[in-house]
């Protein structure tokens, strides 16, 4: 960008030589950073026009600017309105008039205030719509569904939580949209067997069918299973689906690859053999919160030769069951046993013994396993890329070195609430591809190992150091300098972190999520450096940073134009600082609890000024202080208030905190087992 | 034959009067007029409902008759030269047939005796033919006679006829040697000339009684009735089997009851057959019909009254006092009561020239409320259908809104899965939205059908009463019933339901019904010929 702007100064404009096609090609490469295109369009009028005509994807951040954005970008194919809470029928009319022929995809999942008429208008005008996301359109009724059914080219349709749509509406969609490949009916409580059955009969092209939390029963399963191209079926929380339905399924060749039976409480273990004998092409099976997994059940998995991924989260597994899984599923790439009771060192040994190809293993909250398991896992599954072992606190410190020694391909590791120490982390830091590192509540860690991580793991994108008290500014400096790709960092309750860390972090230009909750040493100065350095900052949590005041917010308001979400609870903010935040056009969520310097009037003016707000968390005492008209106005803008009435919390001793946390978790764990 | 001659005169008078009243000029009973009526009817078949009995019956006179002749070969062809002859012939045969059940079932079939019996019948028929033809010839002279005289004549004629019939029946019994009557053995005809009481006991004989009445009241009814008997005889004779026979019998009762409902005006009937009562409007609309003679308390049912009466003393507690009055042996000999609607101009009013009485008080109440009262009960679901009888409302409300599932083609379904099955089956159909406004229409449409089906019952009641000048409402109801009911009487496919169209209207044996209604609309229909196996139906129209 810089080079180009220099060239502009010359009398002869060499840009004239650049044809539109070339500029388009250039623009094609400017995808990663949203600011690049902005800069490009600011070069000259031509570039501005070219950029406007080149843009295919539009994600407006403010509802009220939508009309102007539409004017500027004439050839948008994909319109993502998820940041515009207020989309009225008029907006939809404008959209449909402007993008009659080019619009292919529209996302209205987070928008409200439009009616059936608006949808109808949109669908009738934009004849080439292929994707519509109407999730959360809780007001949408069957007549809206009738409107959708006019979109004959529709291939993907999301109707999650459209609770007013009934079988009639779905049937109309089934009749109208014959090309549907994906349909999501999550939480469509008005839709039952008849509607689903009908859609399955009419829309033969369906690849992906999401029926989570609907009231469907076994009756519609046969027709779903007859869908020739069905690859993905999601039945989360379908209590009407039971073993009998699976038992009556015809033995046939189905193309089903992914099946999600999470929370299907009426599926007993005995249904699984029926299932596995019918859907033999299955590669991904999700049985989260299912039943007991015993040897007999696990043995039925051998009917699924292509099975690559099993999720058994929350199930009770037996040792023999794990062994059977290990023996039956040879090609397993992904295994999730998170929160499974009954996972022991022995079971895990039998499971992973033959799984040389395992890529992802999740043993979160398998609290019984020890270093033996780590030894076994690392010995057999050397290709692991993801290892999640949060809260496995019986694993001794020494075991973690084995991970680094044996699994060099790790990209994602979660060691939250484990006993990992410097030696272990230094060993893990050998995994140069590491992108996500979660080290929350690891009290044994110090700067030494993190500096090592900062030196080696240059690909790091996410770093979680929640309550890792041994960490100081030195680690952060090393990380900030060594990991330029860092996007997310959590330093919550790291008491020793000061503004210096923020200064060093401000070099990470991609940083978008910064959580420095409870770092009392951090002041407004640090915040302002972050604001200046990290232009892409979208989430900032400075809760309980008592030293942060208005001085920190003013630069934030000026420079962090991408900020979406901010938590300012317990800070020393006044009305002035809050009002300044109104400058951030796309600020959507704000949590302002226990701010002593705030007055009701100041809050009202600030909230009125922040026109993009969608969610505000406030103390309940303000509810009575706000005028009713104001609340109604905010609501009509699409803003939701969440009233909290928590007392002011003081800091607790970290050891006591961890102890109580583990105790609580154990109680839950024991309750689960009972 | 002096007595007979007098009777003839009297009957003639009566007959003429009747014709002039109900048939205007057209139906003096000759073939020409008959065929003209038949033509009219075949052109406008919906008249079948409105015009009640006349055309259909007329046609029927001809059709089964030659068939009978063929069976009874010895009959002289002259006997059906004239319509009146035919009629009488018919009549006699039917009376005779009524008796067959008594006599013939003990005998074996003997062609010789049968032949002689037939000849005897022929003789008798000739006598009757002379009698009636005389009446017809002399008809115009006595047209102006007063009603009392007419009644007298009527009485005489019926007495005469009954005596002939008794003779005929006793002989005709041998015609059907192996009749196995499924009915309880009818009591033998009493010696009374009126014959009413005995007539009432057995459906068969009751039928003959009805035909007698009809003969007096309406030519058409009479003929159709007799034809029915004829065909019954024939079919029995042809060994059509017990099944058919029992079928005919089982529907016989039904027939008869409708018969009685539809018989002609009481004035022209022999005294003692039934009496016409007319309740006042206030009585009809009163909540109670049965009143305690002691305390004056009113009841809707007489059973309740009887229960109530027990409180007034022990004498009301005897089984006799508590028994249903109709079951009394004495009541069997009592006059049948028929009711007239107090609304002048209504067909159910006794002043109407095609008066058709109502059978019970309940019928009167429902008829009066439905036809002459405001419809004050509105359906609470659809808020569009109104009823004057609360039972109708309740029936409607049971079904109202049931057919809420509507297809884009306009078909409604009471069940959603049926709608989806329908939509899945037919390309281009789609389930319609239950919008509030569409819901309203859908509901009212459903309600309409519900109501129509409701009214089928009332149609049965009203069928005979829908005269050509019947009020519009009734016509509309009938049309609806016809449209909704698969009993579309134009379609030969729906013979059974067709029957029902005429079933209640015309006293006619069940055998005859399919052929009759079919031949009525499709002349020369093979069905008719097959069943009769003899005369082509074209004869019927010749």
TrEMBL record, chain A:
Residue ranges of every copy of the F-box/LRR-repeat protein 15-like leucin rich repeat domain listed in the record: 279-408, 418-535
Gene3D superfamilies linked to this entry: Ribonuclease Inhibitor
Transmembrane segments: none
GO BP annotation list: SCF-dependent proteasomal ubiquitin-dependent protein catabolic process
GO cellular component: SCF ubiquitin ligase complex
Protein name according to UniProt: F-box/LRR-repeat protein 15-like leucin rich repeat domain-containing protein
Provenance organism: Stephania yunnanensis
UniProtKB/TrEMBL annotation, chain B:
Compositional bias per record (Polar residues), positions renumbered to this chain: 211-221
Residues covered by the C2H2-type domain: 290-317
One Pfam family hit: zf-C2H2_STOP2_3rd
One GO MF term attached to the UniProt entry: zinc ion binding
Keywords: Metal-binding, Nucleus, Repeat, Transcription, Transcription regulation, Zinc, Zinc-finger
Domain of life, source organism: Eukaryota
Location(s) in or outside the cell: Nucleus
GO biological process, one term: response to acidic pH
Spans annotated as Disordered: 187-221, 243-272
Matches recorded under PANTHER family: PROTEIN SENSITIVE TO PROTON RHIZOTOXICITY 1
Protein name per Swiss-Prot or TrEMBL: C2H2-type domain-containing protein
Organism: Stephania yunnanensis
